Structures are given as C-alpha cells and as structure tokens.
C-alpha cells in the first residue's frame, strides 16, 4: 500500500484530476455565462417584422432597389424595420453585427413608438476602413431586459461577398 | 535472480492482436466515415474550382488503384509475403487519403487569398512549426520519439483534424447564428464548439497512437510530445487559414500584409506553444498517464480528464478573449503579449508541471532499471555505463568523443546503442509495472540486439 502511495504515476494522476476540477469550473462558468446571456424560456411571445435589406444611399438616407441578401464590399446597405406591430411595453433595438461580431449599426434601445423615425438602419463601415468586411452580417431586432438583450424578435442574415 | 532468468512475462497475454486494436479499428472506421462525408460536402462546395482539384484527385486515384493492386496481390498471388504487401497497400491508401484531404483543406482554407499568397503564408509557417516540433521532440530527453510518428501526429493535426472539425463547426455556427442572441451568449456557444470539436478531432490522433503504437507510447512524457505535435500541426493549418483570410480582407485597404504578418506573429511565435500545442498536450498527458494506471476505471477517468482540461483551456481562450481588448496604440503590442501570457500561460505552466513530474519519474525509473540490468550481468548494460546513460548530457559527450575518435559512423552507432539500452530499460520498467502485452522474448531479443550493436560500436 505504501509503495502504491509513492508511485509517481499516482501523483501525476492526482495532479491531472486537480486540473480536471479546474477545467470543470471553467466549463461551468462558461455554461453560466451562456445561460445568463441566453436565458431559456424567456419570451415575450411577439415577433418583429423586418421589411427587408436594401441598398442604401447615405446622401439621401434612403433605401433603393429590391430586398437582397448579398452585397458587395463597396455597397452601402440598410435594414428596414416595421416597428408598428410591437407593443409599447417592450424595450427594443435594431442592430447590425459584422462578420467579426462588431456592432456596425444600431437604432434604439427604446420603446417601439419612439423608433418610428428610425425605420432604416444602415450598416456602417468599420472605422478607418474603406469597405465593409466580407462574410456574414446579422441584422437583429432584439428585446431588452434592463440593458441586456434577451430575445431576438426578428433576424436577417446578409452575406457581404469577398470580391 | 538475474533478469535473464525470469520465468514468465510479467503480464502475459495471448499472442494474437490485443483488444485495443479492435477499439482502434472502430475509431478509425468512424474517422473514415466522417472523412467520406466531408469529401462529399467538399465536392458540393468545391465544384467550381477548376483543374487543380482534378489533378490532385487523379494522383489520389492512382495511389488508391496501386494500393488496391498490391492488396489484391497480397491475398491472391503472394500469400508468403502477405503482411508486407498489406502494409504497403495501407501506406498507399493513407497517402491517397492525406493528399485528398490536403487538397480539400488548401482550397477550403486558403483559397480566399489565391495560391501565391497561400504559398508564401505556408512558407512563413513551416520554419516556426518545424522549430516547434524540434523542441517538442527534444523535451523527451530520455527516449526521443521517432520522427515518423511525430510527423504523423503533426500531419493528423494539420490535415485530418482540421477536416474533421470544419463541417461540424460550420453546422454549429449555422444553427447558432439563427437561434441565439448575438453577443456574449453566441460567443460562448462558438467557444464551446471550437473547444469540443477541435480537441476531439485532435485528440483522436493521440488516442489512435496510444492504441496502435503502444511500444512508442510509454508514459505522460510521450503523451505530451504527441499531443503537442498534433497541436502544432493544427496550429500550422489554422495560421494559414487566418493569414490568408485576413490578407484577402485587408488587402483592398492596403494593409493585407500587415494583417497576415500580425496573425503569423500571434499564432506562430507568441502562440506557437501557448495555444493548440498546450491544449492537445493535455489530451496526450491524460492518455499517457492512463497508459501507466492499473485499473480500467482510472484509465478512462484519466483520458476523459485530459480531454476535459484541453476543452476547458481552449474554451477559455475563445470565450473570454473579448474581456482583454487590445488598444490600437503602441501599448496594444504589450497587451497582445500580456493577453496570451495571462490567458494561456497558466495552462502551459500546467503542462510543463506534468512534464517535469513525468520526466523526473521516468529518469528515476530508468536509472533503477539500468542499474538492475547492469547487476544482472547480461552484458547489455555495463556497470560503468549506467551513469552515462542516465544523463542526456553525458550521453551526448560520449557520442561526441566517438565522433572525435572514429568519425560520424561511430557517433551514429553509439547513438543507436544508447537508444537500444534505454529502450531495454523502458521495457523492463513497463514489465515491472505490469504494463506490457508483448512477450518476455521481446526483451531478450532486445538484449541480443544491444550486444550486436555494442560489437558494431566497438569498430
């Protein structure tokens, strides 16, 4: 028995188990973080309506052309939200995320009635860059509790092509 | 009682293939199925790539045809040399699969910037990755792993593991962006995906080496070496991906080279050891420790724990990277280093601690076995050789002395002799711990080989 206790492999095994415990704590913390930002079963039971994503003219602040899901890097585009169907008891925002996960456009957060003049939400180019980043952009209408987005009421995925 | 007079093997097993080969075959079968699925998906996505795919595909087809021919010949025409032919056929099949996967990977990951940029990026990553492999192999100071296995491990990390995970991660991503709230929750989900899928993909290589190449997988030190080698291979392909991708993104802005260069530094210098090499080294450590544990329950726990730590370490980097934002100023350069050291440094230190413990335990055990062998008087290890064999530095000095006296040939002959003597000590150690499934005769054959090498070294 004493020989088994002196076995260095047992020391290694126990050390690994301690690491495993730390690993478990890390993964649990990750799960808690995930559940904090993505709470299950929290739903307002309403859906927002995204009218579409269109080419955008910054000089007139207006959209043109048909609803599209693909754009070139040098094209300006914007999402158009119909806020009218949402109850005024909610706090909502419309938000653009680029392919790196950066926020590149936003309207709100506010009550839907206060966002009537912000139907068009353009995606901005990142600071210092001449073109949009290529890849998948997410345009989401989110419901907030406090400062925290807890539910996506509507979502559009847009592909910005590399060339 | 002398070592030569031991009556039976310490842990005798039947002479047929051990049960672990069945497990290895099942795992390999699953890997092949996933690879076939990947190839079909690759075909669907790569059908617009002209010529080059067909060209490389033809080579793969030729290799498969040759392998089939040799395989059929082994069974039909030349049963006397069946096993040798089957091994050749297997090697050719493996080469064909690797070639196809490499082509798929190259197009999937590096097509964005074009072949010239991809080649330059690959050329930039080869020396650093080679340096990493050299260091990783050398840390096993008592018994270095064969280059062929270290390179196989790295190739698995670069080619097979990346292919195994790419579609899994793509599907996970496709579902996550359509269902989750963008932001930290989505980031955490992506981090779980990367940690889980990438470590499983990489760790499978270490597990297969453990199951199939047991003779070259001795303990925690070997596990760390193989795990880190797989990680370095994976890091090579990931560096290539990020460098080419960011080059293609930022080249229209006039800063493609800087973006690619920064990725090279972050992944091939700063993160060479503090990244994938560290994560997969934990998988290897778990498997290496399991190798020497007595009960099956403990073995399973050690292997699962190794994977768990690797997944957690990988997850923590991907999920919490955003908590350490980098300023776009000169201080940002300091922050990049600090971030890696703070976030991955503790895990790397954990691997190093296991490595030091493992090396120490291995050194003590080998010294003890060498002394026992010298006392047994078989002639395989002489009493005056024990102190030399237990010190890497003194072994090297002896080889240098041989080089000085009799040239390169003598150096190499002595190196082979020393390696065989350490192999014998390792064999004895495993037999004493009842960790072997080879018959005792293998040990005696090794003694005979050492005596023959000693004769050669004398001339």
Q: Total number of helical segments of chain B?
A: 15
Physical arrangement of strands within the biggest beta sheet of chain A: 3-9-8-5-6
Main sheet attributes: strand count, strand direction, barrel closure of chain B: none
Report helical residue fraction of chain B: over 70%
Quaternary structure state of the chains depicted:
heterodimer
**Could you say what the CATH architecture of the largest domain in chain A is?**
Sandwich
Query: What is the terminal-to-terminal distance of chain A?
Result: 69 Å
- State the total count of DSSP E strands of chain A: 9
What would you say this structure looks like, in words?
The complex is a heterodimer of chains A (163) and B (459). Chain A is α+β, with helices and mostly antiparallel strands and 163 residues long. Chain A has helices spanning 2-6, 8-37; strands at 49-57, 62-64, 70-71, 77-82, 91-97, 103-110, 120-122, 135-145, 148-160. Helices cover 21% and strands 38% of the residues of chain A. In chain A, β1 and β2 form a beta hairpin. By secondary structure, chain B is mostly helical. Chain B contains 15 helices and no strands. Chain B has helices at 20-46, 52-76, 82-110, 115-138, 147-179, 184-212, 220-250, 256-270, 276-291, 296-320, 330-376, 386-389, 392-406, 408-432, 440-458. Chains A and B meet through α2, β8 and β9 of A and α6, α7, α9, α10 and α11 of B.
Q: How are the SSEs placed, and which strands pair?
A:
The complex is a heterodimer of chains A (163) and B (459).
Chain A: H1 2-6, H2 8-37, E1 49-57, E2 62-64, E3 70-71, E4 77-82, E5 91-97, E6 103-110, E7 120-122, E8 135-145, E9 148-160
Parallel strand pairs in A: 3-9
Antiparallel strand pairs in A: 1-2, 1-4, 4-7, 5-6, 5-8, 8-9
Chain B: H1 20-46, H2 52-76, H3 82-110, H4 115-138, H5 147-179, H6 184-212, H7 220-250, H8 256-270, H9 276-291, H10 296-320, H11 330-376, H12 386-389, H13 392-406, H14 408-432, H15 440-458
């Amino acid at each position: 028995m004493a020989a088994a206790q002196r076995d260095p492999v047992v020391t290694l095994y126990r050390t690994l188990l301690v690491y495993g415990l730390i690993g478990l704590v890390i993964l649990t913390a990750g799960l808690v973080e995930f559940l904090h930002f993505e709470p299950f079963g929290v739903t307002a039971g309403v859906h927002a309506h995204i009218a579409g994503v269109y080419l955008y003219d910054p000089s007139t602040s207006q959209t043109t052309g048909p609803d599209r899901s693909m754009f070139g890097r040098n094209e300006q585009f914007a999402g158009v939200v119909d806020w009218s169907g949402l109850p005024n008891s909610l706090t909502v925002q419309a938000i653009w995320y680029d392919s790196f996960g950066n926020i590149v456009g936003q309207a709100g957060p506010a009550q839907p009635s206060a966002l009537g003049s912000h139907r068009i939400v353009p995606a901005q180019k990142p600071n210092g860059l001449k073109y949009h980043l290529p890849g998948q952009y997410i345009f989401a209408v989110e419901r907030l509790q406090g400062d925290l987005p807890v539910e996506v009421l509507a979502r559009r995925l847009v592909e910005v092509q590399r060339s | 009682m002398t070592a030569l007079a031991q009556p039976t093997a310490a842990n005798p097993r039947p002479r047929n293939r051990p049960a672990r080969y069945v497990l290895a075959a099942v795992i390999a079968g699953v890997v092949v199925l996933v690879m076939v699925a990947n190839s079909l998906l690759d075909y669907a996505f790569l059908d617009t790539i002209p010529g080059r795919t067909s060209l490389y595909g033809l080579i793969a087809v030729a290799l498969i045809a040759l392998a089939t021919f040799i395989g059929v010949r082994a069974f039909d025409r030349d049963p006397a040399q069946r096993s040798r032919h089957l091994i050749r056929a297997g090697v050719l099949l493996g080469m064909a699969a690797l070639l196809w996967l490499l082509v798929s990977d190259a197009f999937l990951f590096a097509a964005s910037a074009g072949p010239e940029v991809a080649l330059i990026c690959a050329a930039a990553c080869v020396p650093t990755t080679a340096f990493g492999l050299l260091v990783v192999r050398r840390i096993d100071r008592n018994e270095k792993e064969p280059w062929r296995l270290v390179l196989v491990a790295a190739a698995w990390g670069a080619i097979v593991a990346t292919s195994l995970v790419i579609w899994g991660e793509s599907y996970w991503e496709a579902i996550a962006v359509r269902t989750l709230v963008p932001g930290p929750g989505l980031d955490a989900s992506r981090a779980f995906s990367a940690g889980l899928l990438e470590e499983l993909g990489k760790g499978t290589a270490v597990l297969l080496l453990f199951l199939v190449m047991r003779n070259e997988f001795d303990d925690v030190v070997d596990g760390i070496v193989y795990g880190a080698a797989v990680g370095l291979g994976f890091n090579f392909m990931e560096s290539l991906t990020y460098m080419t991708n960011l080059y293609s993104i930022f080249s229209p802005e006039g800063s493609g080279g800087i973006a690619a260069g920064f990725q090279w530094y972050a992944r091939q210098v700063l993160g060479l050891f503090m990244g994938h090499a560290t994560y997969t080294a934990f998988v290897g450590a778990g498997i290496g420790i399991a190798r020497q544990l007595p009960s099956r329950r403990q073995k399973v726990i050690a292997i699962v724990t190794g994977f768990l730590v690797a997944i957690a370490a990988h997850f923590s980097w991907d999920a919490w990277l955003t908590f350490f934002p980098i300023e776009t100023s000169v201080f940002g350069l300091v922050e990049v280093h600090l971030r890696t050291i703070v976030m991955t440094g503790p895990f790397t230190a954990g691997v190093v601690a296991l490595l030091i413990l493992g090396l120490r335990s291995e050194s003590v055990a080998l010294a003890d076995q060498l002394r026992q062998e010298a006392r047994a008087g078989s002639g395989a290890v002489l009493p005056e050789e024990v102190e030399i064999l237990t010190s890497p530095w003194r072994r090297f000095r002896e080889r240098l002395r041989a080089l000085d006296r009799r040239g390169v040939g003598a150096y190499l002959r002595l190196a082979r002799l020393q390696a065989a003597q350490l192999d014998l000590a390792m064999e004895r150690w495993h037999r004493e711990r009842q960790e072997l499934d080879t018959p005792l005769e293998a040990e005696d054959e090794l003694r005979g080989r050492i005596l023959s090498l000693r004769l050669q070294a004398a001339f």
